[in-house]
Please model this.
Amino acid sequence: MGELTGGWKCTKFLLFVFNLIFWAFGLALIIVGAIALDKYGAIFTLASNHSWASGPALIIAVGCIIFIVAFLGCFGAIRENNCCLVLFGVALSIIFILTLAGCIVIAVFKTKVGDCIVYCVDAPQPQAHSLKLTASSSQL
Model:
């Protein structure tokens, strides 16, 4: 590719810098999720029916997606690699379409989503609380 000049060079470095920030954010999410899974994994696993559906696992998954997409943007921008930039654009388009679809589903099923949120927030989780109390009382 030819040498970039003027505004294109600025755009290239802005794309790199913002993707570098998101890359670091994705790495931080992976680390925080791993620490939470290591420290509190048993509580989150007992609170849900599936261990992969726990909060820390979700944080790790989102962190991995952000990490990979931001890496594609960083590498594609700094090396001017068309393949990485196309994959970056496709990934952002898929994320946008999924977000838009989620918003449409929430708008269509507003009452059901509201009832589900109220039920999930108000539902007691005796297993998680009893495990937490038992673990803290045995450490005394």
